[in-house]
Amino acid sequence: MAGDAGTAWVLRRVRPLGGEPVDVLLADGVVAAWRPAGSTGPDSDGLPPGTAFLDADGLILLPGLVDLHTHLREPGREDAETVESGTRAAALGGYTTVFAMANTNPVADTAGVVEQVWRLGLDAGHCDVRPVGAVTVGLAGQRLAELGAMATSAAGVRVFSDDGHCVSDALLMRRALEYVKAFDGVVAQHAEEPRLTVGAQMNEGVVAARLGLPGWPAVAEEAIIARDALLAGHVGSRLHVCHVSTAGSVEIIRWAKAKGWQVTAEVTPHHLLLTDDLVESYDPVFKVNPPLRTAEDVAALRAGLADGTIDCVATDHAPHALEDKETEWAAARPGMLGLQTALSVVMETMVIAGRLDWAGVAERMALAPARIGGLPSPAADAGSSIAVGAPATVTLLDPSPWRVVEADALASRSRNTPYAGRSLPGTIRATFLRGRPTVLDGKIV
Ligand SMILES: [Zn+2]
């Protein structure tokens, strides 16, 4: 039953954060009431006229997921992805907000471009789109972009990143950190010292040596994170570290947090699951920036996410057209799809493995990224993400089935999923954005 924006919904026998089943009423865009499981039917008192019912027996209710790191490719590479197709994939993956990275063409370095992306998101309507603004003009690393104008634009930008490129100039990075304090913004750094990765093709290590491919040392990432943590501490500003990929990076972030500095970090699903020995296949679907690392790094990333050193999971969803990806290794563009598989990978690596419960998943995939990105709090009362009065912006996961990922079945315009043919647990059954279903029965409404 597909309701319109005004329809109230009862989610029958749903399990909030994996807890005991209850009936949850969504009305007027908010979580309106919880009732004893199975007690709410068509004849129940107090239901708005036309209330729709969703049999959610066994489904886990989570706050709508928030992705701090999505490449939607529009404007410029609409053959790889559009705001419409990317946000469709997001909703099907349980996301209700995505932060759209600035490395489009033209680059999102002005109020005009970020407003264009924001409006495209509104028009598509699958989830909220929050544009990320570039730190430097044209991502060129030479001079600061119009950060203030983007912050005060209709798009209300709070996250700034040259992602794809590192802001490697220390003085520019300092200036950006100082500037964003005026509107409680955050600089999200793609940590890669460019002089240390010239020509790099994969993680520097045993596998690279065996394959004879130029290596990408962990220190190229760690050196920038250490420098930027020191800068953030020095100027008292907020630094967010994109796609942390090494054990050493986790150690540095742990140290920076212990200092009391405002440093947050994300890890991608693929860095939680995949390792660099996959490169032995020479399949460019495994080429990504930062590169897949070792099993020791994966273990440290999982431990860092579990103990909160790493604040959140972000997909780094990076669609690429066939000609940019299905080519020889050296010529292929780095990047992987992620929006429709992220929750499943986190379920496999963190929940089934006993490292996080569902409340922990809600924190790492919805609440923490919302705070870092400057979104309004999703909870009416602190401590619970799905409280009465909170926005009815939620997702429903069926945790039981394992499914084999099929690249052709994904909503993205691109096909570069590293999980094709792999079995992953869990599937999104429904997503609601302020009470309006964007996904029902696993399909876009
Ligand atoms: Zn990046």
From TrEMBL:
Its EC number is 3.5.2.3. The active site is at D316. Residues 59-247 form the Dihydroorotase catalytic domain. HAMAP family: PyrC_classI_B. Substrate binds at H71, L72, R73, N103, N289, H320, P334, G335. Catalyzes the reversible cyclization of carbamoyl aspartate to dihydroorotate. It comes from Frankia canadensis. GO terms for cellular component: cytoplasm. One of its GO terms (molecular function) is dihydroorotase activity. NCBIfam families: PRK09357.1-1, pyrC_multi. Zn(2+) 1 binds at H69, H71, D163, D316. Pathway: Pyrimidine metabolism; UMP biosynthesis via de novo pathway; (S)-dihydroorotate from bicarbonate: step 3/3. This is Dihydroorotase. SUPFAM superfamilies: Composite domain of metallo-dependent hydrolases, Metallo-dependent hydrolases.
